[in-house]
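Ligand-bound model needed. zinc ion.
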Amino acid sequence: NSGSRDITAAVVRGKEQPFVIEQARLRGPQDDEVLVKIVATGLCHTDLIVRDQYYPVPLPAVLGHEGAGIVEAVGPNVRELKAGDHVVLTYGQCGHCNPCRGGHGAYCRDFFALNFGGDDGHGHTAITDAQGQPLHDHFFAQSSFATFALAREINAIKVPDDAPLELLGPLGCGIQTGAGAVLNSLQVRSGSSFASYGAGAVGLSAVMAAKVAGATTIIAIDVVPSRLQLAMELGATHVVNSRETDVIEAVRAITGGGADFALESTGRPEVLSAGIEALGGLGMMGVVGAPKLGTTASFDVNNLLLGGRSIRGIVEGDSVPQVFIPQLVTLYQQGRFPFDRLVKFYPLEQINQAAEDSTRGITLKPILRIA
Ligand code: NAD
Ligand code: ZN
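Prediction:
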C-alpha cells in the first residue's frame, strides 16, 4: 500500500498483560481518513478496562483514544482538514444514522463497532506487526498509542495553533466526558447543587464544569484525600471521603435534602445506588463510570418515582466534538477550565508506569509524550 510507514506503537498482546513497545507498519490514508503524527496521547481508564478485557476488544491490539497531533497527510475524500492542521482525536461515529444526524454521535448505532470493534468495521485492520501479522486497531477510530495514527475527518477535531497541543488529547475523551455530562447532558444550572461521585479525571472535569455553569454547591466524593484536596482547588465547595463518612447523610446534609444534579464516575454499582438515594426532588443522576458488562445496580423504585428523580447514561458527554472541544480550549485559555492541573506527562516508553500510577491514584491524567 502506498503511503505506508514504520511506526512505534504500544501493543496489548493478552488480557491483563502489560503494554509492549513494538515496531509496526501503518498503511496510508484512504477515503476520508487523515494520517496524524501523534504529539501526545492521554491514558484513560477505558484503555485499562479494555487491556483487562471488561470490554471484549479483540487482542492483540493498539489502544489509545485521547490522541493529539498534526495532520501529516489526508485521503482523497477529506474536505476541510489539511497537512499541518493541529487536531484532537475523539470517538468514532458513522455520521449518517439518526443519532449522528441529530448531533448525538456518542449514541451512533455503530458506536461499539466503530470504537471497540478492533478493525474498520468491515474486518480490515491498518497496522501490521514486525512479523507482518495484523494488529487490531481503529480503537476509538484512532489507536493513538503510536507515533502515527489514522483517524477519519469526522473524529479529527481542528484546534487553534496557539493552544498547547501536547496537553489537549484528553479533551477527546475523559475531560470531554466529565465536562459534557455537566454542561450538555445534565445541564447543571446556575445556583444549583451538584455532587460528583468520583474525583478522578472525569469527576474533576465535571467539578470544573459545574463551576463554569454557576452551581453554588459543588460536592466531590472520593476515597483518595489528595484528589479531594485538588477538587477544592478546582471549584468544589465541599468534599466527602466516603471511606470515613456516610455519603448519603453527608450529601443530604450539605444540600439541605439532596443534590439537584449528580454524576457517577467511579464505575461502582454501590456508589451509584448511594448517589441515587442522595438526590433531591427532581434530581438527576448521570452515569458515566463503566463497570464490567452485565453489572447491575439497585435503587428504591418509589424513591425515584415519588421524587420525580431520573437516572441517565451518558457517553462522551453527549457533545458535538467539533463544537465542544474548541469551547473547552477557549475556557482553558481563559483560565476558567484549568484541566492542566490534572495532568502528568510520561514518555511513551513508560506507559506501564503511567497505567500503574493511574490505577494507584498517584496520577490523575497521564499523558504520554510521543513526538
Ligand atoms: P479514575 O480512575 O481517574 O477515577 C475514578 C475515581 O473513583 C478515582 O478517583 C477513585 O479513587 C474513585 N473511587 C473508586 N472507588 C470509590 C468509592 N467507593 N467511592 C468514591 N470514589 C471512589 O477514572 P476516570 O478516568 O476518571 O474514569 C472514570 C470512569 O469513567 C471509568 O469507569 C471510565 O472507564 C469511565 N469513562 C466513561 C466514559 C463515557 O463516555 N461514559 C468516558 C471516559 C471514561
Ligand atoms: Zn476514554
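The first helix runs from residue 45 to 51.
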